[in-house]
Each structure stands twice: as C-alpha cells, then as structure tokens.
Amino acid sequence: MKLLILLFAITSLNTFAQRPRVVYGEDGRVDVTKSNDPLFKKLSRSTVALMQLGRGIEQKGDKYKLNMTTFEESMRMCPEERFAKQANPAFCSGFLVGDDLIMTAGHCIPNQKRCEDTAFVFDFKVSKDGEINNNPKSENVYHCDRVISSEYTSNVDYAVIQLKRKVTNRIPLKMNKDKVLKKGTRLLVIGHPAGLPTKIADGAAVRQSPDLGYFIANLDTYGGNSGSAVFNYKTAEVEGILVRGETDYIRAPGRNCRISNVCLDDECRGEDSTRLNIIPDFDKIVLNQRRFYKRRPKAKKYAIETYKLAKKKRPYYRSKKYFVESYE
Predict the structure, then answer these.
(1) Is the pTM for the entire model greater than 0.85?
(2) Domain residues of the chain, as ranges?
(3) Residue 308 C-alpha from the chain's centroid
(4) Secondary structure letter of residue 87 according to DSSP
(5) So what's the architecture of 1-328 in CATH?
(6) pLDDT at 253 > cutoff 50
(7) Contact 86, 190 (CB under 8 A)
(8) Helix H segments across 145-254?
(9) Rounded to the nearest 5°, which phi and psi values hold at 140?
C-alpha cells in the first residue's frame, strides 16, 4: 500500500490518496453489511473515519453533512471499478483504544493543527439497503482535544489522539502485547480504502517482520486505509497500524481513467504496518483499557462475549465459497 493518507484534491472538495494501495490476488474487500463474519462486524464499530472539517464533512452547530462526491469522480476511476459510485469523504482511518483514545498513522495526524481540523466519524458505512447516510448523527462524530503523541519516520508511523468527549456504546480494541509475529500469520484489515465507507478485507498474511518497528503483508488496502487496524485473524487482536505500501492505481490502457493495481499474493512490495508495542504510550493505553473495564462491567461483559467469537469457526473470504458470495 502507499502512504494511505489522502491528500486534498485541487479540483475537488474531496480528498484523495497521497500514495494509494493495491489489491493482492482476489479483492477481499467487502462492505460491513456484506460480511459473513459476526466477530469483525462487531469490531468494525470500534473503527473510525477521519474527515477534514470543511471538505470531507461540513458542520453547522450540532448538524453534520458529508461530501458525497464519488470515488469515480474524485479520483478519475473507471466506472466499472469496485465501489466507484460510493462517496469517499475520509482521508484516513483509525480505531478506538480507550474510551476517549484513537490510534492512527502519524502521517495522518502529524500535529495539533491537523488534529483540530479533523472530525472522527464512527459508523461511516453502507446500510443493508445499500445507502450511505450523508447526515451522520452528532453522537457518532467526535473532535480532537489533543495529540498525545505522534511520530512519522521511515520505520515508525503512529499517532495517539485524545478526543474531547468519551466514546459511548463501543469497546476499545484488544491489542497484541507480544513482540512475536510469525511469517504466514493470517491477517484482516478494517478501514476506509480511498476514503470509502468501512470495508472489511481478509485473506492476507504476514510476509515478513524485518524488525520490531513494522511488518509487511499482502493486505488489500488503498489510500485512506492509513491508520487502519490490522487484526490477527485468529485472535482478533490488533497487530499493527497500516501506514504505507505499493502503488494503488494504474491508468487503464487506452482510456482516460484509472483502475486498481492488481498483484499476485506473493508479488509487489507488500503493505507496511507499524507494530503497536513500539509505541511509547502502549503500556499506558493497555492499563487504561483495564481500568475502563473495571469501571464499566457491562462493557466488559460485551467485550468478553464479542472476543469469544474468535474461538469459533468463521468464514474466510479468500476461499472461493465465501469470496464469490461476498463479491460485488
């Protein structure tokens, strides 16, 4: 994947990827409502879209309105491209790690100014009837209080954000505290490829983990996925933050539009994810989660029941049976 941050378009109010991502093998992305996996459908509620105030999302008092420019229009995609007709107002992705803490990529939120110019929008997804609500509920839109920490280097790329108010009716995502991540570990990513509504994409695996700072995998991700939670498919724990990768799009031969760059599962450079346990605030965040569940027994019970699903047999989209069923 490329630097997943979406740059603001010159000719459009929408945003588009600084360095888009790519599809490896079959395209494993599905809308949340199309997913057959009950565990990750639940966990997707704890992921969030980052939208620039005044461009991706407009605010008037406590009312919000999304920029509904389509993926096709904003990024000159060919009309047959998957999700071409969906709106793409997000520029990055993130996920909940505390009752008021968001984790994302450092290049998405490099400083306080960018943070204050960003709305953090939960439940930006396609409904069961295929519609996108362009007026998100105010209870699902949050604003930045402060950047707790942010770093953006060639090996380290992360940001931890504190919101102005606590997030309700959602649980912080469990994170892997173990530094070991073996080649071949199956992965899944949830985020906003190209700024689109939430997509769940499985069928990926760890290619290599060069050092403790990041790992490389064949994730189907695009610009806008930057900051996405990369999950261990078996345990459902977050292993990393998606931050960069292969070029996402190529020009369609003989046409003035673009299509997804497609690589075989073992080809191209792969997509990089920052390891969570190298983040200085990691242990504090884990401690904060424990305290959260002590204060919120109902949330703890919900989390236990949710993560129990990880021990049950669940569909894997890259197998033909489920991929064909879910492919649009």
Answers:
(1) yes
(2) 1-328
(3) 23
(4) B
(5) Beta Barrel (2.40)
(6) yes
(7) no
(8) none
(9) -100, 0
Among 44-53, 230-239, 260-269, which stretch is predicted with the lowest mean pLDDT? Answer: 260-269
Residue 212 amino acid letter: L
Q: What is the pLDDT of residue 315?
A: 64
Q: Are 81 and 43 a contacting pair, CB within 8 Å?
A: no
The predicted-structure confidence for 107-153, as pLDDT tens digits, reads as follows 999 999 999 999 999 999 999 888 999 999 999 999 999 999 999 98
- pLDDT beyond 50 at 202: yes
Closest CA to 85 of 72, 104, 102, 74: 72
Q: Which two tokens stand for residue 307?
A: 């993560």
Residue 316 CB-density burial (10 A; 0-12 exposed, 13-18 middle, 19+ buried): middle
Cβ atoms of 190 and 273 within 8 Å: the answer is no
Q: Tell me, what DSSP letter sits at residue 252?
A: P
**Which of 82, 99, 71, 43 is closest to 230 using CA atoms?**
43
Residues 252 and 283: beta-carbon distance below 8 Å = no
For residue 203, give the nearest of 213, 188, 222, 221 by alpha carbon.
Answer: 188
Phi, psi for residue 159 in degrees, rounded to 5: -150, 145
The answer to whether 239 and 227 have CB atoms below 8 angstroms apart is no
